[in-house]
Amino acid sequence: MGVLLIAEVNSGTLSVDATAKALTAAKQIGDVTVLCVGSGCSDAAQAAAKLDGVSKVLCAQDDAYGHDLAEPVADLIISLSSDYTHIVAPSTSASKNILPRVAALLDVMIISEVTAVVDADTFERPIYAGNAIQTVKSSDLIKVATIRTSTFEAANEGGMANVESIDACANPGLSEWIEDKVAASDRPELTSAGIVVSGGRGVGSEDDFKIIEGLADKLGAAVGASRAAVDSGYAPNDWQVGQTGKVVAPDLYVAVGISGAIQHLAGMKDSKIIVAINKDEEAPIFQVADFGLVADLFDAVPKLTEQIA
Amino acid sequence: MKVLVPVKRVIDYNVKVRVKADGSGVDLANVKMSMNPFDEIAVEQAIRLKEAGQADEVIAVSVGVKQNQETLRTALAMGADRAILVIATEDVHTDIEPLAVAKILKAVIDEEKPGIVLAGKQAIDNDMNATGQMLAALTGWSQATFVSELTIEGDNAVVTREVDGGLQTIKVTMPTIVTVDLRLNEPRYASLPNIMKAKKKPLDEKSAAELGVDVTPRLKIASTSEPEARLAGIKVGSVEELVEKLKEVGAV
Ligand SMILES: Cc1cc2nc3c(=O)[nH]c(=O)nc-3n(C[C@H](O)[C@H](O)[C@H](O)COP(=O)(O)OP(=O)(O)OC[C@H]3O[C@@H](n4cnc5c(N)ncnc54)[C@H](O)[C@@H]3O)c2cc1C
Ligand SMILES: Cc1cc2nc3c(=O)[nH]c(=O)nc-3n(C[C@H](O)[C@H](O)[C@H](O)COP(=O)(O)OP(=O)(O)OC[C@H]3O[C@@H](n4cnc5c(N)ncnc54)[C@H](O)[C@@H]3O)c2cc1C
Fold first, then answer.
1. Structure ipTM
2. Going by C-beta distance under 8 Å and a sequence separation of 6 or more, which residues neighbour residue B239?
3. Interface of B with A in 14-73 (CB under 8 A)
4. For residue range B41-90, what is the model confidence (pLDDT) as tens digits?
5. Measured in angstroms, how far is the CA atom of residue B90 from the centroid of ligand 2?
6. pTM as predicted
């Protein structure tokens, strides 16, 4: 018995950062088997086998598994579940879609966004947009949980686990993939970047968002946004940071023209250093900022971009 | 086709929650409660389906305490046709777990036979993001989560989903469970005449026991605590000073 960790695989490539962070949590519970699922995922499985602390890697390849559709992937996980006490995954849009389905099929509760493992049955998780931390103890036979990656260090490489191919399950045929709209970018991925520069409604337009992107590129940072900036069309949805967007905890978070609503803070307040640039000295973002600059962003951000070596 | 919309009563999103001193939970006495914001979006979408002639009836359902009547009246005032309240507890502090809510909703579905369920992506109190997916598992139906666009085409629904990498479009077979994301629509406000009319719309009450669902929690809340507060930082006077400070701490 042990832990089944569902790896994050995108287009056949292992998302090493997310998987390695969830692995750190999984190792605290027990012996870890990693499951890679995809239309082609042997490379991902080889990469997962190299992570330190992985006992075994299972690789399930099938066309039905290409796009993280919940129904076939949940059925596959169920077919393996009797061998494990825990089924966990990094908390991503894919696992948030799939694992609650798995849990209900097993008649157990899902434990979402785990931020600390207390023991094999007991976990911490944030509620109310991170304004409270709850410690929950599960009485279920199998625990199904998603792991909030921003609170765990990534496991290192150095493993040499065996990779075993496993058969696909029958596809229930309830859903069908049509298309993905994914913007290609050379920037680091938002949830794993060391530096994030985010813009809010204060930036004012999609065009002016280039000021934010300019600073980000100078810093080698990922770009984030508030919900107001996304809703206004200044930035794409996958840049949203917050309670209902992505949760980030970089070494440096720069919030520009963002007021600091609790829903936004929920996604970034665990960053190591927070910088806020806002023209309103009363903006709540200053209450969490290590360094606050009261200034017009159109003046301050270009200057900052220039002055950073 | 009937549309079923599960709506949850939660602390209003503007309220700063306080953890009770004894660590037993969050103080819910005398705080403003509202419909979960995602559920307003789901109700709005259901009404639009009806206005477009794709649905005949919109049924709002809430699981919890007697006070959830208010939340259901809001849904009725927005334009839902009738409401079902399933009483599962008497204490406002007892939140019912998504698995139990999903079992109750499954029992309601067995009676009402809707063609589509529109739920919220997550409830802003517990942020579980689970009920819709669990309901899909229990019904054996397809699921379409985090949806920002929805079109019904015959026996299928075509949906665009907000995912980590951007947007994903999938086609699911009906009946289906949809969970809605923030950008699907802008919910309407209920007008005063509609609020009055809503008082006369049917609101049925049942209990979880009548539906044969055991709501005993699987997760025991061992404690609830405040997160560590961040230490207040400093204000810098200029961009130059900011750069200097960032260099001092090795951030750039
Ligand atoms: C259910 C729900 C979920 C939500 N989820 C999220 C979420 O995940 N993420 C999120 O971010 N929000 C979320 N929100 C929204 C949140 O409540 C706020 O509305 C949002 O974060 C505000 O974005 P903002 O700070 O960019 O805009 P505003 O609050 O409008 O702030 C703009 C700021 O820019 C400053 N400014 C303007 N012009 C300039 C200038 N020239 N120079 C410098 N500063 C300037 C202003 O002083 C102001 O402080 C959610 C809300 C709800 C109800
Ligand atoms: C202070 C506090 C005390 C708690 N005490 C207990 C306890 O004593 N016992 C216990 O079992 N759990 C308790 N919990 C845990 C908690 O009940 C569950 O984790 C939580 O209720 C379910 O998650 P969610 O509401 O975030 O659902 P989500 O899955 O995030 O909700 C998604 C959507 O599902 C629908 N939905 C969810 N709930 C309902 C509902 N009730 N009615 C209609 N539709 C709904 C809505 O459409 C909603 O948008 C407590 C939590 C807190 C914060």
1. 0.92
2. A293, A295, A300, A303, A304, A307
3. 16-17, 19, 26
4. 999 999 999 999 999 999 999 999 999 999 999 999 999 999 999 999 98
5. 15
6. 0.89
